[in-house]
Amino acid sequence: MAGLCKPALLRDAAICRRVLKILDRITASVAQSGDRKNDLFRTLRQALGYCWSVVAAALPEEGKKALERWADHPDPDVRWILRENLKKNRLERLDRQWTAAMLSRVANS
């Protein structure tokens, strides 16, 4: 997953859209996961805490919409993933007001 989220690979909008779909499916699997104590789960969660923001920065309009779809999810790990991404400077540079509003929304969900 982290290999797909390299900025140099995300110069094509079609690739970005595919990667967003992959991240969406992986995030859904996190929300459905039962075993969250193992190292594999923690590594996956950390990678997702990085990857979403890279793709959102590469394809801002669609990336922001994809993140918004997860903003009110009740799962604490999904909210952690979103918070980690929303703390990234790349998203703040992209849209400071949106990022602040999303951080607030995630914190209050």
How do the helices and strands line up, and which of them pair or pack?
Layout: H1 13-32, H2 39-58, H3 60-70, H4 76-86, H5 89-94, H6 96-108
Description:
The protein has one domain. The termini are far apart. 27% of the residues are buried. The mean pLDDT is 94. Helix content is 74%, strand content 0%. It is built from six helices and no strands. It is globular, with a radius of gyration of 13 Å. With 109 residues, it is mainly alpha-helical. It has helices spanning 13-32, 39-58, 60-70, 76-86, 89-94, 96-108.
Q: Number of helical segments? A: 6
DSSP strand tally: 0
Helix-strand makeup class: mainly alpha
Span between termini: 27 Å
* Proportion of strand residues: under 5%
Helix content: over 70%
Question: What is the average of the pLDDT values?
Answer: 94
Number of structural units classed as domains: 1
Rg, nearest Å: 13 Å
- Rough shape? globular
What does the main sheet amount to?
Answer: none
Uncertain regions: pLDDT < 50 for 5+ in a row?
none
Order of helices and strands: HHHHHH
